[in-house]
Amino acid sequence: MRGSVLVGAGSVTDVAAARTAIEAGARYVVSPVFKREVAAAMPGCFTPTEILTAWEAGADVVKVFPAGALGPGFIPGLSAPLPHLRLMPTGGVSLDNATEWLRAGAVAVGAGSSLVEAVAAGD
To answer: Which terminus of the chain, N or C, has less C-beta within 10 A?
Structure first.
């Protein structure tokens, strides 16, 4: 949906926190790490093995974190042999490079600190 915003919760590392966020109205929940018990949320992964394991554990979308260390080229590089994966880079995504990540094949991006900075600056 162009022009709409979904509110979620980030840095969730256990089931209780995920449940609390969802009950408070979060439309999605993301984690900075992969933990099988919160895989129904959006686990954070860095390596191809972690990403595939999270997908196989039931994640609809896998958070690639910290994506800035990998760069947008990681998305098509991983998608070539694993085209079924749905990836959302975070950590290193900014308002300046979000389009580059999306063009590379990300289904969404997470721009936490850069978004907060832009709002604080009135952008």
So the answer is: N
